[in-house]
Amino acid sequence: MNFQHQLAAHLLVFFTLYPVGLFCAISYLTSWLCGWRLLARHFRANEPFYGESWSWQSARFRRWCSYNNCLTVGANQEHFYLSILLPFRLFHPALLIPWQEIEVETGKMFFGYYDTATFRIGAQERVTLRIYGKLVNRMRQAAGPAWPLYRTEQVESQAKG
């Protein structure tokens, strides 16, 4: 009888701690692989963000690490803001990135139907982040003249002007 109580207690501890430990390990590994942890070293948001923001957004880091419908993305004339929903925020602090640290390359996908923007963040980090759809134009409008241009866009805008 005592053995059964010990076994039940061990199983209870295992099935309680295992999912929590697994969640922590996956959150840490994801932040490390996608580059969020690297960006947080230099761009952790130590002040509140003031500007337009959009919740429940999606983005792709480093071409293969997707954050689907769990991001809050913001932009103003000084910064690009990123945070993740509270349950997933472990090892993912909010980021506040100055536009001077970002290059943006815009384009189209799905036969010109969707706008895309690929951000190259940080002079040393060079973490890539891609956003899609209406969010690209919303961010561009919120950033105003601070919206960074990639070299090909600079050449095109100079040719037009």
TL;DR?
By secondary structure, this protein is an alpha+beta fold.
Please provide a written account of the structure:
By secondary structure, the chain is of the alpha+beta class. It has one domain: Roll (PH-domain like). The protein is elongated and about 70 Å long. The chain has helices spanning 2-34, 36-43, 134-143, 151-160, and strands at residues 52-61, 65-75, 79-84, 95-98, 102-109, 114-121, 127-132. The protein is 38% helix and 33% strand. The protein contains four helices and seven strands. The N and C termini lie far apart (86 Å). A seven-stranded antiparallel beta sheet has the order 4-3-2-1-7-6-5.
Strand and helix layout:
Elements: H1 2-34, H2 36-43, E1 52-61, E2 65-75, E3 79-84, E4 95-98, E5 102-109, E6 114-121, E7 127-132, H3 134-143, H4 151-160
Antiparallel strand pairs: 1-2, 1-7, 2-3, 3-4, 5-6, 6-7
